[in-house]
Every structure is written in C-alpha cells, then in structure tokens.
C-alpha cells in the first residue's frame, strides 16, 4: 500500500471513529428522553418541553470557585500561540443556513449547555478563549462536570453568571441545566437557566438533541464537542489554562484549535472585524475547517 493510500485509510478510520464517538455521545445525552421512537421524536419532545418553559424554580449552581488569574489566562491567550496552533487537532464546524442570528445589531453566538455535561465542559474553554478575542468576558466561575457522567469531574468553567461586552459580537450563553439530578427534566438534571422560545427552536432544529449546542450567527454550528473531554482528565483549572498557552501541548492543540475555528466563524459573521484578529495567521489556517 502506498504512503498516500495509507494516509487515506488512516483518515477514513479516524472519521469512522469520530462518527461512532459522536453517536455514542448523542445516545448518552438522550438516555433519559428515549422511551421509544425515532431521533425526530426525541428532538420534538425536547423542543416541546423547552417551549412550554415549565414553571420550575431556578436551581442553584453547584460549588464553584472564582479565580481571577485563571480567568485572565483563559481570556488572554497570546496571538502568537493561536497562530502556531492554527486548526490544531480539533473537529471542524458545520455550515448552516437560516435567518441571521443577532442581538442589538451585532451577530450572536448562542451557547446552550449544562454544568453537569462533560462535553460542554470541554467546549466552554474554547468558546471562552474565542469570544475574548472580540470583547471582554467576565464573571467566569470554575466548576467540574458531573462525577457520575462520562468523563467524570472534567475541569471547566461556567457561563451562568458571565457577562460579555463587545463592539462586534453578542455572546448569549444559556447554562440550561445544573449538576444536581432531576429525572423529570429532558437531560435528567435540574434546570438552571431557561432558553427563550427562539433559542428552543434553534436547538430543536440544529442540535440533534444533544448539548453543548453552539450556533454562530445561524451560519455555523459546532458539533457536540470539538475534542474529547478525556484530554483534560486529572487536570486542575490552572493547569488547563497554562496548557492553553503552550502550542505544543495536546490541550493547547485541542482547545486553541477549536477556538481558532470558532473565531474564524465569528469573523465570517462580523465581516472580518476586528481586522487584527480576523486577518491573523490563526484564523487563516482555521478557515478551511469551518
């Protein structure tokens, strides 16, 4: 077998493995929803449950820490690090078409997830790094994913109390579920923040019934996670933040690569603004993966 053929074979095997992993994640996320029926039925149930917005009290988030140094590191990854990573080793985005998503005249990045969710735990690091290139992200709290789910206790951050200011982008995070269990909800965990009817419709249409759901201007959506949470196993928040500043680390190549793809998608909906970000080597390299 030629070298080119071996490369194609390895690529095909990697795609199959990734697809199987995505399917396993979706099944895990839906385990409390599926009694019978098809995927379409599951999505319809999820959408209906969101739209009625059951009048449940807002649940309190689990234990969390404030760490200004870690937050600063996550939001100030050097441009040179992003440039060296490029697309890294993360999974790309998917282009969609629909009515443009915006708030206050600015393109919107919508995130929907849950504090219990290990895939959300992985994706939040990349989202935080990406949006911080377009404005100021504050109010981050540092948590772990559920100790009883897949990839238990994945170190992460929460957007439940975060604020974001930017001239270019509106970032709208919805931490839909907390960590405590509640078998009566779609994902088996307590409600933390409720989506709006519009957000619920987008979730029902594009998410495949799984979280995290990331919609960038209704032009691009991220897969359920752009890299596996196992990348972060056993790490502290500070170690993750430090690794994000090391382009040679597997954590840096995953998180920063995912952040570069998200950044490239944001640049597509902000019409290339700001120029210093959108015309960087990092975004140019990542653009081919969205």
Structure write-up:
- Helix content is 40%, strand content 17%.
- With 290 residues, it is of the alpha+beta class.
- The protein has one domain (3-289).
- A hairpin with a 2-residue loop joins strand 2 (102-103) and strand 3 (106-114).
- Helix 2 packs antiparallel against helix 6, helix 3 (68-75) runs parallel beside helix 7 and helix 5 crosses helix 8 (250-269).
- The chain is globular and about 45 Å long.
- The model is unreliable at 1-17 and 26-62 (pLDDT under 50).
Gross morphology is globular
State the end-to-end distance. Answer: 31 Å
H/I helix tally: 10
Q: How much helicity do the residues have?
A: 40-55%
Tally the structural domains.
Answer: 1
**Beta-strand proportion:** 15-25%
Low-confidence stretches: 1-17, 26-62
Helix/strand order = HHHHEEEHEEEEEEHEEHHHH
Mean pLDDT: 84
Count every beta strand, where a strand is a DSSP E run of 2 or more residues: 11
What does the main sheet amount to?
7 strands, mixed
Assembly classification = single chain
Radius of gyration from CA coordinates: 18 Å
By secondary-structure content and strand pairing, the structural class works out as alpha+beta
């Amino acid at each position: 077998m030629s070298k080119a053929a071996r490369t194609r074979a390895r690529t095909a095997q990697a795609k199959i493995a990734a697809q199987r992993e995505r399917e396993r994640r979706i099944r895990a996320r839906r385990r409390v929803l599926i009694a019978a029926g098809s995927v379409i039925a599951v999505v319809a149930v999820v959408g209906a449950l969101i739209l009625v917005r059951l009048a449940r009290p807002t649940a309190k988030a689990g234990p969390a820490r404030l760490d200004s140094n870690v937050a600063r590191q996550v939001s100030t990854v050097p441009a040179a690090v992003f440039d060296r990573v490029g697309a890294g080793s993360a999974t790309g985005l998917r282009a969609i078409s629909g009515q443009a998503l915006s708030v206050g005249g600015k393109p919107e990045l919508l995130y929907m997830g849950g504090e219990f969710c290990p895939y959300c735990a992985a994706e939040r690091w990349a989202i935080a790094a990406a949006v911080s290139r377009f404005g100021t992200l504050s109010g981050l709290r540092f948590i772990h994913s559920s100790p009883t789910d897949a990839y238990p206790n994945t170190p992460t951050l929460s957007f439940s109390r975060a604020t974001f200011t930017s001239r270019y982008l509106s970032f709208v995070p919805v931490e839909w579920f907390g960590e405590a269990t509640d078998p009566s909800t779609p994902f088996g965990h307590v409600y933390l923040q409720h989506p709006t009817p519009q957000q619920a419709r987008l979730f029902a249409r594009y998410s495949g019934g799984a979280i995290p759901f990331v919609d960038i201007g209704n032009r691009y959506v991220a897969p359920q996670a752009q890299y596996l949470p196992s990348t972060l196993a056993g790490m502290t928040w500070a170690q993750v933040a430090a690794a994000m500043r090391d382009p040679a680390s597997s954590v840096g190549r995953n998180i920063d690569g995912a952040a570069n793809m998200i950044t490239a998608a944001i640049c597509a909906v902000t019409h290339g603004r700001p120029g210093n970000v959108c015309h960087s080597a990092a975004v140019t390299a990542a653009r081919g993966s969205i």
